[in-house]
Amino acid sequence: MSESTVFRGSRRALRIGTGLALISAALYGANVAAARVASQAGMPGADLIAWRSVWFLPLLAIIAFFARERLRLLPGEAGPTLRLSISASLTAIFYLSSVDHLPVPMAVVLFYMFPLFVILLASRIEGRRISRVQMGVFVVAFAGLVTAVGPSLAGLSLKGVLFTLGGAFACAYLFITASHVPNAPLRNAFWTQVFMGPLAFLFAWLQGGLANPAVALGIAPVAVALAMGAYALAYWLQLVAAQKISADRAGLLFLFEPVMAIAMAGLFLGEVLTPVQSIGVALILAALAAEIRLGTREP
Questions:
Q1: Contacts of 48 (CB under 8 A, 6+ apart)
Q2: Torsion angle of alpha carbons 90, 94, 95, 96, nearest 10°?
Q3: First to last CA, the chain
């Protein structure tokens, strides 16, 4: 195989991974806003995750059966898959629990410290240097994020802040771990749900017990369905994308999630963007465009 063919194949994988990451980010953004609506209807974040695992786990098992994909873990796969599952579980539980206590924009801006954590952890774990361009893109994107969200001290909850930052750190580790697990998105998603469901039930119990899901389903059935379905598809796409792009690049691309979350919050929660916040969104999109443009030059 010629060097030019390998290079074209690498660029194609990079473009596909970039597209899948952006779609996943958009779905995650819709999931956060929907989870906020579900929380206000009586289904807190941990409850939502717990009940989601009840149908998502058997669905994954059924799909794997018909796809004839192996779900059993081999000895060398157990460690990486366990780390992926735990980090993904803590990310989801902490992040969605934070919107029980914080407005969506506040939770988003705090959670999106995670790309910085990704860059720092990746450089530490993988021994790669942080480039000036990479740091510059992140600074512009995060500045745009802060401008778009326009955080204030109103509605600040210490518990919500701790949940969000805990989710951000877990998410950073998730992005790094996801690039080291075997290329088997269905199997990885299955084992993630094996751990996520029990952890979410435990977390909900520690928070005072599970709420009656019928109440939230009666008040906001569309929001509950969207929060469950959007996450399921987003997580699978994220695992596929992680095999094609680096962890730090994925972290930057996922800055598209807050754009979607802010837009959804404006539509369904009455949080309308001001002109200044719109400028912030434009900065985020500009940083994403720069990252995509510069990143596709990598072999």
A1: 35, 38, 39, 96, 224, 227, 228
A2: 110
A3: 15
Contact yes or no for 178/238 (Cβ under 8 A)? yes
Gap between the Cα atoms of 245 and 12, Å rounded: 11
* Secondary structure, 3-state, 178-212: HCCCCCCHHHHHHHHHHHHHHHHHHHHHHCCCCCC
Please give the angle made by the CA atoms of 39, 165 and 224, to the nearest 5 degrees.
20
220 in helix, strand or coil? Answer: coil
Compute the distance between CA of residue 149 and CA of residue 265 in angstroms, rounded to an integer. Answer: 11
pLDDT per residue over 94-152, tens digit each?
999 998 988 887 788 778 777 777 777 776 666 666 677 777 877 887 787 777 666 55
Residues 6+ away with beta carbon under 8 Å from 111: 95, 98, 164, 165, 167, 168, 171
Look at the block and give the residue holding tokens 């962890």: 247
Cβ atoms of 168 and 107 closer than 8 Å: no
Distance between CA 144 and CA 282 in Å, rounded? 7
- DSSP annotation of 113 reads T
Distance, CA of 251 to CA of 61 (rounded, Å): 29
